[in-house]
Structures are given as structure tokens and as C-alpha cells.
Design goal:
Length: 447
């Protein structure tokens, strides 16, 4: 790989890794955060979803920002804000301040994610070299997601939950130093779509509130119904605004291309399975089985190893048999993962738990590299940031809604861990994955 491309890849990989670790590591730290700041299940759900929702909603315009401001500049802005917000999380005196700082973290991560991928897209013009660079970038994110619980458990038990956020500060500084050696990125003039961004934020926030608070306040309560109505009205308004805007942040014609629309749906389902699985397991290990943070984190070590190995194999497998079979297979493996978790109980032997979780390690690591490369090849280079923003917005939305759904189902009278609720959630996600696997088989090109 060219030297400048290599520096851009390392900088992009570090940023993608740190914003991904922040999701899964915090999941393991949730019980400690709840004890330290007196937070109930709904508050802990907001600690996770305040980050992922802002991540998802703002990534729509952040992708366009990467195109307009240039990938390198947008990436530097995002990393700097993420580093400062991490410091705010570490110093938070209460759950409200922590949730607010997580909102800022999510906004920054929304800029970092598409800008990092656009930086790679611009650094590698050759399609094969770009595919391999994207595969490495995806490996970093997948390994970070799988290794995050291990790191989160170790940091929480040895240095306290605040260390999970303090770790981001030196990494952010290193990324900014690396960016000095990265070539400037091209800029594409475009208008700011404020109305589209506002309606997107309102739609996702309303939907998340309805799902999270529905299990606590009741699905027919006034606030929950009002939030659901806001989500529907805002989604309709978003469609109208984007159709009328001269330079929308989400060009609707892109969504009519099956090479774009299907990967977005698959990304939503895959993240719902993985984020939901990590969230459930973190609470299962600590609340139901009584494990310490370190022990719970170590339970994810085999998953980290399998994710790494699968990510390395996936791009080569896609080159040999085609991307579509790999994407479909990844989703079907995830279905097996959801079904394998159904028998879990308080006294399931630990070795059997690890065996049952192997499919959860393989599914996303198999599908995501091929999925991302397919989408990047389906759009012109100047739309790389927008396409990346769309994909990751759908992925983060899937993860946020899965956490909201599982959180509501897991909470028994507001305080316990409900195994029947967990199983209902697993079956719902399995059904979603079966549907998107069928769409992939029918609509995606094989190559």
C-alpha cells in the first residue's frame, strides 16, 4: 500500500476502533455506573442509546459533511470533539450529566465514522487495494466491538468505570498527530440540509423514547403514544423535505438502487443482532449469574478471537465465491446465534455458554466486510461519505433499537433480569434477519 495511504488507513482505523470500543466497553460498565450514580434500567439504557441515537441521526448529515469539508478536516473535527466529550463522561457527577456527555460523544462519533471511511476511499483509487483497506478497517471495528467488553470489564474492576472514557483521550491525541501526515481531501460544495437533519433526529428520538419508556410507563401511556406519533410525523416530514431539497443530505434516488437499499436493511439487522447480543450478555453475566466485571469481560475473549479470524477470511471468501453468498451466510449464522442463546439460564455451564455464543462471533464478521465493499463500489467516489453515513446510520439505529427493545423486555418490575423477555427479543431479531437474508438472496448481485 502507498505510504500516505497507509498513514490514512492507520488514522482511520484508530478512530473507528475507539468509537466502537466505546459502545461495547460501556455495556460491561453499566452495572457499575448504575451503582455509582444510582441509575435504574431505563437510565442505563439511555447511557447506551444517547450515544448510538445521536451517532445514527447525525451520521446522515455527517456523511455529507465529510464530502463538503473534506474527509481529513471533518475527521479531525470529529476526533477532537469525541476526545473532549470523553473527558466530560469521565468527570460526570450524575447520570444526567453522563447522558448529556454521551450525546456529545455520539455527535462526534457520527462525524468520525463516515469521514474515516471516506478517507480510505480517497486514499486508494485501485478497487482491489481499496477493498483490502476497507476489510482491514472493518476488522478493526469488529475486533474492537468484540474486545470492548474485555477491556471494559478490566478497566471497570481495576480502575473504575470512568477509566473506560479516560482511555479515549491519548488515542484521540495520537490520531490528530497522524492526520498531519495525511494529504488534504477534496471538497464538494453542498448546501446545509438543516430541516432534514432536524426531522431525522426527532424521528429517531421519538422512536427510541417510545421503545425504551414503553416497557416502563406502559405501551398505551400518554408520553409513549405521543413519542410514537412524533416519530411517525417526523419520518413523513423527513421524506417530504428530502424530496424538495435541491441538495438533500440523503439523495432519495440512491435508495432506489437495490445495491444501496438492501445493504442498508442488512446493516440494520446485523447491528440489531450484535449490539442486542452484547447488551443482553453483559447483563446476563453480571445480573443473573453474579459475575464480576472482569469475569464477564473475559467471557468475551473467545468471541474476540473468532471475530478476528473471520474478518480476515471474509474478504478472500467474497473474492472467491462472490459477495452475495457471504452476506447471506453471515445473516443466517446470526439467526443461528439468536436461536442458540434461547436455552441460556442462570445455571447453564460456562463452557456451554461459550460454545453457544460462537455463531454470534461469526455472523457480523462474515457479512460486514462484503457488505461495506459492495456499497462503496455501488456509489461514485464523491458520494463515498454520504453512502458511508447512510450505512452506518442504519447500523447504529438497528443497534440502538435493539438495546431499547431488549432493555424493556429484560427488566422485570423495573429491577430484575427476565429470561422470558430475553427470549422474546432473540426471536424477534432472528425473524428480522431471516427477512433481510431473503432480500439479499433475491436482490443483490452475486459478484
Amino acid at each position: 500500500m502507498p505510504r500516505r495511504g497507509g498513514v490514512a488507513l492507520v488514522a482511520s482505523l484508530l478512530g473507528f476502533t475507539v468509537i466502537t470500543i466505546d459502545v461495547s466497553a460501556v455495556n460491561i460498565a453499566l452495572p457499575a455506573i448504575g451503582k455509582s450514580l444510582s441509575g435504574r434500567m431505563t437510565a442505563l439504557q439511555w447511557v447506551v442509546d444517547a450515544y448510538t441515537l445521536m451517532f445514527a441521526a447525525l451520521m446522515l448529515s455527517a456523511g455529507a459533511l465529510a464530502d463538503r469539508a473534506g474527509a481529513r478536516r471533518a475527521y479531525a473535527w470529529g476526533v477532537a470533539l469525541f476526545t473532549l466529550a470523553s473527558l466530560g463522561c469521565a468527570l460526570a457527577p450524575g447520570i444526567g450529566v453522563l447522558v448529556g456527555a454521551r450525546v456529545a460523544q455520539g455527535a462526534a462519533a457520527a462525524v468520525v465514522m463516515p469521514a474515516s471511511l471516506a478517507l480510505i476511499r480517497q486514499a486508494y483509487e485501485d478497487a482491489r487495494a481499496r477493498a483490502r483497506a476497507i476489510a482491514l478497517w472493518t476488522v478493526g471495528g469488529s475486533v474492537a466491538m468484540a474486545a470492548g467488553p474485555v477491556l471494559g470489564g478490566l478497566l471497570t474492576e481495576t480502575a473504575g468505570w470512568r477509566a473506560v472514557f479516560l482511555l479515549n483521550i491519548p488515542v484521540g491525541a495520537a490520531i490528530l498527530v497522524l492526520l498531519v501526515r495525511v494529504s488534504r481531501s477534496a471538497r464538494r460544495p453542498a448546501a446545509v440540509d438543516g430541516a432534514g437533519q432536524l426531522t431525522a433526529v426527532l424521528a429517531l428520538a421519538g422512536l427510541a423514547f417510545a421503545v425504551i419508556e414503553g416497557g416502563h410507563l406502559g405501551w398505551t401511556s400518554g408520553p409513549v403514544l405521543a413519542a410514537a406519533a412524533l416519530a411517525v410525523a417526523s419520518a413523513c416530514a423527513f421524506r417530504v423535505v428530502e424530496a424538495r431539497h435541491r441538495q438533500p443530505m440523503v439523495p432519495l434516488h440512491m435508495l432506489t438502487d437495490r445495491r444501496v437499499a438492501v445493504p442498508l436493511a442488512v446493516g440494520f439487522a446485523v447491528n440489531a443482532a450484535f449490539y442486542g447480543g452484547i447488551f443482553v450478555l453483559g447483563l446476563y453475566y453480571q445480573q443473573l449469574r453474579g459475575m464480576s466485571g472482569i469475569t464477564a469481560g473475559l467471557m468475551f475473549v473467545p468471541m474476540s478471537a473468532v471475530v478476528t479470524a473471520t474478518n480476515l477470511v471474509s474478504p478472500r471468501l467474497a473474492e472467491r465465491i462472490g459477495r452475495r453468498p457471504v452476506i447471506v451466510a453471515g445473516q443466517l449464522v446470526f439467526v443461528a446465534a439468536m436461536l442458540a442463546m434461547l436455552p441460556l439460564a442462570a445455571h447453564t455451564p460456562a463452557w456451554l455458554v461459550l460454545v453457544l455464543l460462537l455463531p454470534l462471533s461469526v455472523g457480523g464478521a462474515l457479512a460486514v466486510p462484503a457488505l461495506t465493499a459492495l456499497l462503496m463500489d455501488a456509489v461514485p467516489g464523491e458520494r463515498a461519505g454520504t453512502a458511508s453515513g447512510l450505512l452506518n446510520s442504519f447500523r447504529q439505529t438497528g443497534g440502538a433499537l435493539a438495546v431499547a427493545l431488549f432493555g424493556g423486555l429484560l427488566s422485570d418490575t423495573g429491577a430484575g433480569f427476565s429470561l422470558p423477555g430475553m427470549r422474546i427479543g432473540l426471536l424477534a431479531v432472528a425473524a428480522l434477519l431471516l427477512a433481510t437474508a431473503a432480500l439479499s438472496r433475491l436482490l443483490l448481485p452475486r459478484g
